Fold this sequence. Notes:
The complex is a heterodimer.
Chain A: E1 10-14, H1 19-31, E2 34-39, E3 47-48, E4 51-54, H2 57-64, E5 68-71, H3 75-87, E6 92-95, H4 102-112, E7 118-120, E8 126-129, E9 133-136, E10 145-152, H5 156-167, E11 172-177, H6 188-197, E12 203-209, H7 214-225, E13 230-235, H8 259-268, E14 272-273, H9 280-289
Parallel strand pairs in A: 1-2, 1-5, 2-4, 5-6, 6-7, 10-11, 10-12, 12-13, 13-14
Antiparallel strand pairs in A: 3-4, 8-9, 8-11
Helix pairs in contact in A: 3-4, 5-9, 6-7, 7-8
Chain B: H1 5-14, E1 22-25, H2 28-38, E2 42-46, E3 59-62, H3 65-75, E4 79-80, E5 90-91, E6 95-99, E7 103-114, E8 119-125, H4 132-138, E9 143-147, H5 156-165, H6 172-188, E10 191-202, E11 207-209, E12 213-216, H7 225-228, H8 238-245, E13 249-252, E14 257-261, H9 264-276, E15 283-286, H10 293-304, E16 311-318, H11 323-337, E17 343-349, H12 352-360, E18 366-369, H13 372-384
Parallel strand pairs in B: 14-16, 16-17, 17-18
Antiparallel strand pairs in B: 1-6, 2-3, 2-6, 4-5, 7-8, 7-10, 8-9, 10-11, 10-12, 13-15
Helix pairs in contact in B: 2-3, 5-6, 10-11, 11-12
Amino acid sequence: MSILVNKNTKVVIQGMTGKEGTIHATGCIDYGTNVVAGVTPGKGGTTHLGVPVFNTVMEAVEKTGANCSLIFVPPPFAADAIVEAADANLKLIVCITEGIPVRDMVMAKRFIEGKGITLIGPNCPGILSADECKIGIMPGNIFKKGKAGVISRSGTLVYEIVDQLTNEGVGETTCAGLGGDPVIGTKYNFWLEQFQNDPDTEAIVMVGEIGGDDEVVAADYIKKHVTKPVVAFIAGRTAPEGKRMGHAGAIITGKKGTAMYKMNALREAGATVVENPALIGKAVRNLLSN
Amino acid sequence: MKLHEFQSKGILAHYGISVPNGVVVTEPQEAWVVAKQLGAPVILKAQVHAGGRGEAGGVKIAKSAEEAESIAKKMIGMKLVTKQTGAGGKIVKKLLVEKTANIEKEFYISISIDRKSGRPMFLASSEGGMSIEEVSETNPDAIFMRTIDPTIGIMPSQAREIAYRLGLSKQVKQTSKLIIGIYKAFIDTDASMVELNPFILTKEGDILALDAKINIDDSAMFRHKDIAKLRDVTEETETEIKSSFYGLSFVQLEGNIGCMVNGAGLAMATMDLIKISGGEPANFLDIGGGAGKEKVGHAFSLILQDENIKAILINIFGGITRCDEVANGIISAAKELGLTLPMAVRLKGANFEEGSKILKESGLKFEVYSSLNDAAAAAVKMANA
């Protein structure tokens, strides 16, 4: 089983006809994702990559039965794209766009509140269920169906870790990116619950970083609700305080934002905290073979 | 983007918030004129993008126009080292000369986005003038937090509540006006933070924003052409200016191993691994997605600005970014810059075999690895050689 998305998920891609949208839509289709529609205002009625394009998400949903949106719309318009997907009653929205104004995200997040919508991202690599479907920009070839559920705040770091898991023979069930922005949709706890309840997921790999205290909140959740083994890595123990490390959200502003504080909280919650980022795959394999 | 105190106060005044009368000066004679116009005593405040100015000697009171001029003479051009500037300090180029206020009591108020709720949140404290981090350590109960629903914005009752909590029951109207003004300025300017530390109750019973700091969300700058004009490039280092121009994220650190990585998380993890392997990273550098010759070239020049660099570790996990493209970028940039430092390169993911081959056949001093651990160990060895 895979979490949330599988080969039957019908995906509409907002911003599909743009440069980024075209590259990644191709990648998704090649991975086997059921992409049923594209949306670009003004290009309705055309076909792109063999997929019908509509002017609005609403129309795309009516005509194709899409049940998930993937967003590649540029930053100034991306929050509007999230609202449009929510208005079309889509319950799963994946937003890849990096650099959305925070105020726009505050409004979009407020808009979808209480509507039963799962928003993944923004500024994230999306979600991938191994050998089922990819809704995002992760390199599909590094995944292999297996036992680990993976959650991460960053992109290439999680590719690194997935690659290790695949090479160690552990493999993955589903991998989700939370996003590097300060205001994002799903956080660790949502995925911890999903993976805890997924019969195929035998171990959970949690990749965090400095800034905010989501990992500390997650540690509390793990302590109370997670019985499966959790392996965690927190990036940024060498990061100085008060400097933004690439991601808009990766800045230490208080002691809870430091890597050490997060690692300690996770350790106390019973998670296996790995300090060497090159040894995460091995740690999961060892844990599962015991 | 950071704004200066005088710029922040200008914006807040536009939202009906009372700020002291003041003028920005760049010459000592101007300080004399302003002091005469405002009437001494006046306060002279160094305008630099860093907190902790008072303790560092960046804020001085002058009892006469003559004294204002002589203080300005000393302050303009001085290097101000505060706990936020780092050892390098900042050169003072502008002074804000203001009428002094009669302080009865100091308060703290700020608004920023609360990551947990994803909403704007006020932090207010009756212990103004100290850093809020300090208050949260020593007296957390003195801090009052209030999130605001962004769809309806701040309501008068919510502003009143904050005023009463701060004990300003006699100045509820004025304080509410200040709080509502802060909220509006925060939303309208796409600020990531508005902070008044302190705002004060004067002996005359007025509410006044004595200090102000506004930071603007960089992602929203495209819709604020007016605020973009307030950018003070002289407050930024050459490195900061260049890296933001080329779409690179760069932070200088203290070690001697330069790092070049694609992706912020992986870049931090690579720094961590250098430390674990017994070395010290010299920088954080995320070259982002797609890295052609020009971008890699600028990344190298950023790393090489630091004379302590002994070795470079390049870690690329190809996905959308293809390793062979990066390899070509690395070689042409290295040749152009005449790079002689030893480099450990780790390539993995899309087209890494081709990339490794290109590097090995280039005749340059690369050691190419596919294992992250081996590459980090090699870089540490190179740096210690």
